[in-house]
Design brief:
The complex is a heterotrimer of chains A (287), B (283) and C (246). Chain A is built from 11 helices and 4 strands. Chain A is mainly α and 287 residues long. Chain A has a single domain, classed as ABC transporter involved in vitamin B12 uptake, BtuC. The longest helix of chain A is centred in the N-terminal third of the chain and has 30 residues, at 2-31. The radius of gyration of chain B is 19 Å and the shape is globular. Chain B is mostly helical and 283 residues long. Chain B has one domain: ABC transporter involved in vitamin B12 uptake, BtuC. In chain B, helix 1 packs antiparallel against helix 10, helix 5 crosses helix 6 and helix 5 (123-147) packs antiparallel against helix 8. Chain C is of the alpha/beta class. Chain C folds into 2 domains: 1-80 and 167-246, Rossmann fold (3-Layer(aba) Sandwich); 92-165, no CATH class. In chain C, helix 3 (96-104) runs parallel beside helix 6 (150-162) and helix 5 packs across helix 6. The chains are: A mainly alpha (287), B mainly alpha (283), C alpha/beta (246). At the A-B interface, helix 4, helix 9 and helix 11 of A face helix 4, helix 9 and helix 12 of B.
Chain lengths: 287, 283, 246
């Protein structure tokens, strides 16, 4: 029973990681930039969710606004930080990204205090559902549903709509796509829009899960998401999804069995490093 | 020299050594490293543990450097196998693995770290001078390295690894050497730190510290010895002279990273070069 | 005439397509060998396998009697091999002369520790300047490669390879992208190299110049050797003409 429970919990966390990591891998696939500032967008989404929910009493409104603002924030980061620096080596935008992340985190600390904010009315994280002996609370279930629906939705969009196909073409072969009339700038905006929206929603959900939102919450999730996209093969969405779930489960087990040796958060990176030693291209990357 | 000034000199010296050591890896050899604080930490922990066993001062520093350098080479071996883009995340991972490990080890003090580190025996002023000499030595070594053929080859490896191989450069050996030297010096800085602080905590060696060191390198001008040294001094002094700067230390670091990379990726050194070039053009 | 290097039955496939399907030929010391063939014949692939930039799926590469198939590219350079890329790759952050200096100082760059204690760049600088003068780039010494037109960048690439004191020089399409005057000049330049004791293996599309300067040619088609011998003889063969025409 413990094994099954660990696996299920691991998958739940994996869904959350997937929502973060997909945004990162989309940016990398398109621009070869490690979008570390993504962590800030995650925290931004969380803060907006909790502030709006507490102020208006409507969690739904909180989530909607969080999604919108996060998406716009992501686009703004692209427009003002990355676009001007695309001519330089990848090191430069990555450093700017780190800087943005730090500034955002500190801004949150200054505005909301180091201890963060709790939800005024959050019955969801304590209400559990019994699924054959395994107990998941409403938020955990929501995470799985949200991740599945949103990612499947994006998958359909990418295969069935003109905009989606244009986006896929740009990721695979930018020059060819441009010659077919696809606007690379619009594709980039779409990229950041979708990835950042996902991060914002993930932030709100994690805030709900823990019942509070604090300034440094973006950091750890983001670092793990970075490890995930490397594991999944940088730029591969499918790889990222699989790696997210794998990491969630590995962490779940590692936190129990390696508890005396390593911190829970180190386990993900340990796993990454070990995998890279054996397979330098990541779990699913091409050699 | 008052005790306050002495402690300031010590901190500046240690930061300078840290920044210069990362400069060798990232600035000279072009290998990005987001986990440098881990090697600082390895050196500190090794030196602290030995010092409490009674090992004397110069030996603890050497042990710290050796331990950090060895692990650095092992990490470097990882870097050889992975793609360039992976290196940032892998080195970040090393930082977290180190921290996660050390926090859980009872024999290393766990979350509480190691306390009761013996006195250096030199007194605060004496120790400050010792650290200052060490920092000066690292500056001299960095300059020597930069002007040697190793520096020239590092430049080639940083520029284009495939082309470097075409001219017979064993790029793997050079990258490992850069990692080994840079991490050993960081470990040495860790050893210096323990006699200054007398107590070490795991959180001193976290990701934020890695970024702080990277900021000094970036602001100074990745690859420039003088730029990085000056940046280390300035960025250590700033929180001391300005209370506001101290409260908003991290915010300022982040802002500096953004501003420098956005407007002058060559850092202070880049600006200096521009300024000097303009002056040469006007008669 | 001693065999300087030879390849034995090299095979390499990329995604199901055989770029090399049993390639074998030899280079003797001091000769000028041209490797030609239609597009996709495997010429550049062959060169890159000799250089060590590509690993074959099977087959062997020899320098003299020594099997170097498992040796990485930089180690082959140390055994006396020079290599230029089809798309030039100078060190863009170096000046022209520095590009050649890093190669001229190859004894010092052999091991990091030797490099650490090597300080003087004067000898390397003098040698580099001499090579660049011979090659016709004496006025560009301190210029960035970005400031050089393609023809000069290609010369720089050759200069850098020569500075390695190679016994064998592999040139991958050195004439590509050059005007006919530049191509003729480059062909003359590389033609003179065997006179300095450097054997040359050249992959080229520009048949006019190649036939003028080569001692011997090897024709590849579909990853295999179709013919080899003196230029006049080989080009007279029907199967060679057919391979080129269609």
């Amino acid at each position: 029973m413990l094994i099954v429970e660990l696996v299920v919990k691991g998958l739940v966390y994996g869904c959350m990681y997937a929502m973060m990591a997909v945004g990162l891998t989309l940016v990398y696939g398109l621009l070869r930039i490690l979008h570390i500032a993504h962590a800030g967008v995650f925290a931004l989404g969380a803060f907006i969710t909790v502030v709006v929910a507490n102020y208006t009493g409507s969690l739904l409104l909180g989530f909607l606004l969080a999604t919108a603002v996060s998406a716009l924030a992501g686009i703004a980061i692209y427009r003002f930080a990355y676009q001007p620096l695309l001519g330089h080596s990848a090191f430069v935008p990555m450093i700017v990204s780190i800087g943005i992340f730090i500034v955002l985190q500190e801004a949150f600390r200054m505005i909301f205090g180091a201890y963060g904010i709790a939800f005024d009315n959050n019955p969801y994280y304590t209400t559990t559902v019994d699924l054959g002996g395994i107990h998941l609370n409403y938020v955990e279930i929501a995470m799985v549903i949200a991740a599945t629906v949103l990612l499947m939705g994006f998958g359909l969009f990418a295969s069935l709509t003109r905009a989606g196909i244009g986006w896929r073409a740009t990721v695979t072969d930018p020059q060819m796509a441009t010659s077919f009339g696809v606007d690379p700038i619009r594709v980039r905006y779409l990229n950041f829009f979708f990835g950042s929206a996902l991060a914002g929603i993930a932030g709100g959900l994690v805030g709900l899960l823990n019942n509070y939102v604090e300034p440094t919450m973006g950091g750890l999730v983001s670092y793990k998401a970075l490890a995930i996209i490397v594991l999944g093969g940088l730029g591969s969405v499918r790889g990222t999804l699989i790696a997210s779930l794998v990491l969630g489960v590995v962490e779940s087990f590692g936190a129990i069995y390696l508890a005396d040796v390593f911190d829970r958060d180190a386990i993900g990176f340990l796993f990454l490093i070990l995998v890279l030693m054996v397979r330098p291209q990541g779990l699913l990357g091409r050699g | 020299m008052s005790a306050y000034v002495a402690s300031l000199v010590s901190v500046i010296g240690i930061n300078m050594i840290l920044a210069l050591s990362l400069n060798i890896i990232t600035g000279f050899c072009g290998q990005v490293s987001l986990g440098h604080a881990a090697f600082y930490g390895v050196g500190a922990y090794a030196a602290a543990y030995l010092s409490k066993l009674g090992v004397s001062l110069p030996l603890t520093l050497l042990a710290g450097a050796a331990m950090a350098g060895t692990i650095g080479v092992i990490v470097g071996l990882t870097s050889l196998r992975v793609r360039h883009d992976f290196l940032a995340v892998t080195t970040m991972g090393i930082g977290f693995v180190f921290l996660g490990f050390v926090r859980k080890q009872r024999w290393l003090g766990g979350e509480l770290g190691i306390s009761g580190i013996p006195d250096s025996g030199l007194g605060p002023v004496g120790y400050a001078l010792f650290v200052a000499c060490a920092a000066a030595a690292v500056v001299v070594f960095s300059l020597w390295l930069k002007q040697s053929w190793m520096g020239f080859t590092f430049d080639a490896v940083a520029d284009d690894e495939d082309a470097a191989r075409t001219v017979g450069v064993n790029t793997s050996a050079y990258k490992l050497t850069a990692f080994g030297i840079g991490t050993a010096i960081a470990g040495f800085a860790g050893g210096l730190y323990i006699y200054f602080a007398r107590i070490i905590l795991p959180d001193t060696f976290d990701f934020v510290t890695s970024i702080a060191i990277l900021t000094m390198v970036v602001v100074g001008g990745t690859g420039s010895v003088w730029g990085v040294a000056v940046a280390a001094i300035a960025m250590t002094l700033l929180p001391e002279v300005s209370r506001a700067a101290s409260d908003y230390r991290l915010l300022i670091f982040g802002a500096m990273l953004i501003v420098v990379m956005r407007f002058s990726p060559g850092g202070l050194a880049g600006l200096a070069r521009l300024f000097l070039a303009r002056r040469r053009m006007t008669p | 005439m001693s065999t300087l290097a030879h390849i034995e039955d090299l095979k390499l496939s990329f995604g199901g397509v055989a770029a090399a399907d049993g390639l074998s030929f030899a280079v003797t010391a001091g000769e000028f060998l041209a490797v030609i063939g239609p597009n996709g014949a495997g010429k550049t692939t062959a060169l890159r396998m000799i250089a060590g930039v590509l690993r074959p799926d099977s087959g062997r590469v020899f320098f003299g009697d020594r099997d170097v198939t498992a040796l990485p590219a930089h180690a082959r350079v140390r055994l006396g091999l020079g290599f230029t890329h089809q798309i030039v790759r100078p060190f863009y952050s170096f000046s022209t002369i520095e590009n050649v200096m890093i190669a001229a100082g190859h004894r010092l760059t052999e091991s990091p520790w030797r490099a650490l204690f090597g300080r003087s760049r004067r000898a390397a600088r003098e040698r580099a300047a001499a090579i660049l003068e011979r090659i016709g780039l004496a006025d560009q010494l301190d210029k960035s490669p970005r400031a050089l037109p393609l023809g000069q960048r290609k010369r720089l690439e050759v200069a850098r390879a020569i500075a390695l004191d190679p016994k064998l020089l592999l040139l991958d399409e050195p004439l590509a992208g050059l005007s006919s005057a530049e191509a003729a000049a480059m062909a003359d330049l590389v033609r003179a190299l065997p006179g300095d004791g450097i054997a040359v293996v050249l992959v080229e599309h520009n048949l006019g110049e190649v036939l003028r300067v080569a001692d011997r040619i090897v024709v590849l088609d579909g990853g295999r050797v179709l013919a080899e011998g003196a230029p006049v003889d080989v080009m007279a063969r029907d199967d060679v003409r057919k391979a080129y025409m269609g």
